[in-house]
Prior knowledge:
The chain is of the alpha+beta class and 294 residues long. The protein has two domains: 2-128 and 266-285, Rossmann fold, CATH 3.40.50.10330; 131-262, Probable inorganic polyphosphate/atp-NAD kinase, domain 2 (Tumour Suppressor Smad4). Helix content is 20%, strand content 34%. It has helices spanning 15-27, 36-42, 58-63, 75-85, 111-119, 191-194, 277-285; strands at 2-7, 31-34, 68-73, 92-96, 123-128, 131-135, 145-146, 149-154, 161-167, 170-177, 179-183, 206-212, 222-225, 230-236, 241-245, 248-252, 258-262, 267-272. The strands form four sheets. It has a six-stranded antiparallel β-sheet with strand order 7-6-17-14-9-10. The longest helix is centred in the first third of the chain and has 13 residues, at 15-27.
Amino acid sequence: MRIAIFGQHIKEQDFEHLAILLSALEEEKISYHFYEPLYSMLAGSLQTTARGERWNEAADLEDLAIDYLLSLGGDGTILSAVTFVRDSGIPVLGINLGRLGFLAIVEKKFIRQAVQLLSRGMFSIESRTMLYLESSMPLFGEVPYALNDFALHKRDTSSMMIIHCYINGDFLNSYWADGIIVATPTGSTGYSLSCGGPIIFPNSGNLVITPVAPHNLNVRPIVIPDSSVISFEIEGRSEHFLCTLDSRHETITAEHQLAVRKCDFEMQLLQLHNFTFLKTIHDKLSWGIDQRNE
Length: 294
């Protein structure tokens, strides 16, 4: 088994957890390969016995015949990992060194247990829908797709924008708002949720369109089939707007013609036994727990 280790920044207080991870990998005789910028960041700060080749880009994962990728950080780190995994089909397991962690489901105290479950094949692989962005002008280089969401947003403190939205060419609505989000089921627990959108189960086959601070109070999030193509026309007093895919953003103008649809490939997430979506919801949102008199 060959593992790629990815992370963007490891805090000093998490070095002990990384040491536990490496120790567990070596006990299970699992070969691991560090993301080069992460390894360079840790050099001199942590004694590792990493002997494998390091990797830098998407092509390296294929060259190294990587079986699984371990993402060290929060959900944002997994979203960054997507830009390396792309359509390779390499499953990703998130170890939560961040905060809430809907995607990075393995908490620090379960790191050794997670490696043991992985080594023994006690997991399932869950396919997650991704979004693909089509634009009349090039955006986001080789990675015009997102695991969580696509969003259009006003810049800084500029006035609200008007977003005309179409589904499969038919007019849906005009949104007078600060922006709009199209989220996958995976992304329904992210930005969309904070703007009042619903939680959608991972394999429900839907997308959700959620306005950001809409001026019209009768406008609400709407759930649509993921076979839909959603296109946009933008108006506003400002000349420039923000277009985002997960944590990445580009500046656009009203001249951009944009459409999003379900991506042709899916992201593969590792689900260890006893680490389910419902358990994550219960743990992260404290559902089913009466805290009124605690």
